[in-house]
Each structure stands twice: as C-alpha cells, then as structure tokens.
Design brief:
This protein has a domain of 218 residues: NAD(P)-binding Rossmann-like Domain (Rossmann fold). It has 10 helices and 13 strands. The strands form 4 sheets. A 7-stranded parallel β-sheet has the order 3-2-1-4-5-6-11, sandwiched between helices. Strands 7-10 form a two-stranded parallel ribbon. By secondary structure, the protein is α/β, with parallel strands linked by helices. It starts with a strand and ends with a helix. The longest helix has 21 residues. The site of nicotinamide-adenine-dinucleotide has 29 residues, from helix 1, strand 2, helix 4, strand 5 and strand 7.
Length: 317
C-alpha cells in the first residue's frame, strides 16, 4: 500500500482528494493548520484506518521533515495555500510564505527523501485577464495579483527542480472549482457557494456586471480524481496542466439553473462590474487528457444540483 502526503487536507479540495485516495486503497497523511479549512471536512476520512490527521504548518520544514522521516511517501499533493486573492494584496509577505516558500520547502523535502512525485495546486489565475481563449499552457502567463504571481513562481521553482533533479512535478492549474464543503463564509469564496448559501436563506444574490461573464466551472469530484491520477499514475511528464472542462458557463446560465432549484424566489441584483474582474475564463483540457487520460465527467447542471443537495445535507445538523 502506497502512502501519500496531502497538505491542506482539511480544506475544500483537500478533503475530497483525501477521500479519493483512500478509495484507491492508498494510505494518506493529511496535514492542515486549519487556517481556512475545517476539521469537520475530514469526518469521513477520519473513519478510515488508513488515514492519519496531523495539525501542522506545511511551511514548517522541521515539522514536515519528521513526517518525511516517518513515512516513505510515494507522492505529495501540496494544496495548502493562502487562497484569497484579495488577502494576497493585503498581506504580500504572508502570500510569499504560504504560496511560494512553503512549496519550495516541500519540494526540497521531496528531493531529500526521494519522494519523486509532487503534485502542486496552481491556478488559472496565472493567465491574467487578457489571455487568449481557451487558456492554453503555452500562453505567456500574466499574473495580476500577488496570489497568481506566487503560484506561477512556485511552478517555475518546481519545474526547475524537475529539470535539475528529476522531480516529477505536476503543476495543476485549477479553474473554478465548485462543490460541497466550499466555505461560503468569505465574501471572496467561490461564487457558487455564495449563491447557494444566499438563495437557500432566501437572500438576494448580486451579479457584478451584466451576467454574461463566463467561467470554466469544474466539479470538485473531478478535481479530486485528477489529483488522484496525477499522484498515482506510473508515468507522468513534469509540467503545467489545466484542470478544466473546456466549457465556459455564463453567470446568467448559472442563474437559470438556480431558478429550477429554487423556483419560489430568485431575487437578483445587478451591480456595476468590479474593476479587474476577468470577463471570460476557459481552459483547454487537452494537455491533461494527453498526460493522464483525464477528462471532467460531471455535467455542470448535475454538479450544481449536487452542490445544493450536499450543502443541505452538511448544514442540516
Ligand atoms: N477552489 C478553487 O476554485 C481553486 C482554484 C485554483 C486553485 N486553487 C488552489 O487549490 C488549493 C486548495 O484550495 P481550496 O479551494 O480547497 O481552499 P481551502 O481554503 O478550502 O483549502 C486550503 C487548505 O490549506 C490549509 N492551509 C493553508 N495554509 C496552510 C499551511 N501553511 N499549512 C497547512 N495547511 C494550510 C487551510 O487551512 C485549508 O484547509 C489552494 O492551493 C488553492 O490556491 C483552488
């Protein structure tokens, strides 16, 4: 049985990825400092004898070294990060620590302990607002926030280690991930978790702009599967890969689906578009399909229904 380290395990993507790895008969050590994650997200994982939960900072090299010494990791999924773009503007030094320095530290531990595979959570944010569509990995990235800059810098570091030392660094550029357990508490959280939370409470939702802006929404279940494939497939080529569906969905299309799910009331406010908001975002999924045979399988309308149902189940208590 192979053992994997997952950082950011108590987060939205982390907790689903841990469950996916356990379902593949892997042993998982899940690290999180609970900065934005929640221990309740690991309720299912913690019932497994093959899961071990560790409260620690992924950037604390001494603490992480102990784990690398104790376990012979077959691979690491590094998700722990400062995840809020606005927070990265307010706290650039913290952004540097959490999004770049921690990734570098984890990568060097992988090299030291001969853990060859490192899957890194990058972001579509590296493309910037003016990139040609669909976003292709060959495009020159134009990060427009400290968050995107640190994600891109971390990719460059890891791919430098891949070229220098043979680290199998797989940098996954997630597009807009949605699904159960995405925290609606932050105003900067995923738009679908905010919409779902407000509509369930009968509150109006605000659309900035005309609602015709599009996003490549991908279900967290598909993302967890991509992470599992990237960690466990025998052969991978180090590189940067979009994790996307290839489909752009407008917010007005999203609202039409909500209309079916919440037929009684659907108060919508249209507000002035926010400066700096990206108009369209859509990834080309081909490179990842070539690498892993991966393609997203959850149709958006189904995934959104699951989000609404998952939300109601997880918030019933
Ligand atoms: N959700 C998306 O749409 C999306 C899109 C692109 C990229 N990403 C990336 O995916 C990763 C996971 O994001 P998420 O949406 O699940 O967010 P999340 O906030 O739910 O998960 C991040 C987890 O990392 C933990 N964490 C943060 N810093 C840590 C540290 N130093 N040590 C240990 N744990 C730490 C947090 O407590 C949290 O549990 C992040 O790297 C994020 O940048 C997410």
């Amino acid at each position: 049985m192979q053992t994997f380290l997952v950082t950011g395990a108590a987060g939205f993507i982390g907790s689903h990825s841990v469950e996916g790895l356990l379902a593949r008969d892997c042993r998982v050590i899940g690290v999180d400092n609970l900065r934005t994650g929640h221990l309740e997200n690991l309720e299912i994982a913690r019932t497994s004898p093959h899961f071990m939960w560790v409260l620690a900072d992924a950037g604390d090299e001494a603490a992480m070294r102990v784990l690398f010494e104790q376990h012979r990791f077959a691979g690491v999924l590094h998700l722990a990060a400062l995840v809020s773009v606005p927070e990265s503007f307010r706290e650039p030094a913290l952004n540097y620590q959490l999004n770049l320095a921690a990734a570098d530290s984890i990568a060097r531990l992988c090299l030291e302990f001969e853990c060859r595979r490192l899957v890194f959570a990058s972001s579509a944010a590296v493309y910037g607002a003016d990139a040609a569509l669909p976003n292709r990995e060959s495009a020159i990235p134009q990060p427009q926030s400290p968050y995107a800059a640190a994600k891109l810098a971390a990719e460059v570091m890891l791919l430098g280690y891949a070229a220098s030392y043979g680290l199998e660094a797989v940098c996954l550029r997630y597009f807009n991930v949605y699904g159960p357990r995405q925290d609606p508490g932050s105003p900067y959280s995923g738009v679908l978790s905010i919409f779902t939370d407000r509509l369930r409470n009968g509150l109006p939702v605000t659309v900035y702009g005309d609602g015709e802006q599009t996003r490549d929404f991908i279900s967290v279940r598909d993302v967890a599967r991509a992470n599992g494939e990237a960690l466990t497939q025998a052969q991978v080529a180090a590189g940067r890969y979009n994790v996307s569906t290839g489909q752009g969905i407008s917010l007005n299309e999203v609202l039409a689906i909500y209309q079916e799910l919440f037929p009684n009331t659907l108060p919508i406010n249209y507000a002035v578009a926010r400066i700096g908001d990206i108009r369209h975002s859509r990834g080309d999924p081909e490179q990842l399909r070539n690498l892993l045979g991966f393609s997203a399988q959850t149709p958006f309308a189904q995934g959104l229904r699951e989000l609404v149902l998952g939300y109601s189940e997880e918030n019933r208590a």
